[in-house]
Amino acid sequence: MCRNIRTLFNFEPPATETEIRDAALQFVRKVTGTTRPARRNEAAFDHAVERIAAATAELLAALETNQPPRNREVEAAKARERSMARFG
Fold first, then answer.
1. How far is 57 from 59, CA to CA, in rounded Å?
2. What Cα–Cα distance (Å) separates residue 36 from each residue in 4, 32, 44, 77?
3. Chain centroid, CA 4 distance in Å
4. In whole angstroms, what is the distance from residue 13 CA to residue 69 CA?
5. Where do the domains of the chain lie?
6. Which residues pair with 12 in a beta bridge?
7. To the nearest whole percent, how much of the chain has pLDDT over 90?
8. In the chain, what are the helix, strand and coil shares in percent, each to the nearest 5?
9. Beta bridge partners of 11
10. Cα–Cα distance for residue pair 28/23, rounded to 1 Å
């Protein structure tokens, strides 16, 4: 499940709200051990996703770096190369 959580900091363009929410959703899924909560737990599940997404957005806005922003396409190409070397 957590393989879908990607680094969101220091990219150009910056991470979108959708990317942040998707990462928060994956985190909550991993912590709870479920991809879809029971109906009675749905409100708590959704609330946790929203709070974690807000905290993540706040964190990303506060972080600073001297490194130049990374390019998403270049990083994706590197990941594909690593995958091909690993899995063939």
1. 5
2. 16, 10, 12, 32
3. 7
4. 8
5. 7-87
6. 71
7. 78
8. 65, 5, 30
9. 70
10. 9
